[in-house]
Design goal:
By secondary structure, this protein is α+β, with helices and mostly antiparallel strands. It has one domain. The protein is built from 2 helices and 3 strands, in the order αβββα. A 3-stranded antiparallel sheet has the order 1-2-3, covered by helices on one side.
C-alpha cells in the first residue's frame, strides 16, 4: 500500500469512528480492509482497498458519501476534506 492511499484510509477510519455510537471501530484485513462499527444501533461495515488504483480518492469518496447517507449523516465530503 502506498503512503497516499494509507493516509486516505487512516483518515476514513478516524472519520467513521467519529460517527459510531460508542466511538469504537474494529478493522479486519483479508484482501480488503473491513471497518466494522455500530451506527444507530446497527452493526455496519465499510470496505477499504489495500492496493487501490490511481483514482482511489475519487472512488472511495463517493462510496463514503453513500455509506454516510445510509447511516443517516447529512454531511458530504469533498476532495479537500478526505
Amino acid at each position: 500500500m502506498n503512503t497516499r492511499s494509507s493516509a486516505i484510509n487512516k483518515r476514513i477510519i478516524n472519520l467513521l469512528r467519529s460517527y459510531t455510537d460508542d466511538g469504537i471501530v474494529h478493522t479486519q484485513q483479508n484482501k480488503h480492509i473491513k471497518v466494522i462499527g455500530t451506527y444507530n444501533g446497527v452493526v455496519r461495515s465499510f470496505l477499504l482497498s489495500v492496493s487501490p488504483a490511481k483514482n482511489y480518492e475519487q472512488h472511495i469518496r463517493s462510496c463514503l458519501n453513500r455509506f454516510l447517507i445510509s447511516i443517516g449523516v447529512n454531511e458530504r465530503y469533498s476532495k479537500a476534506e478526505i
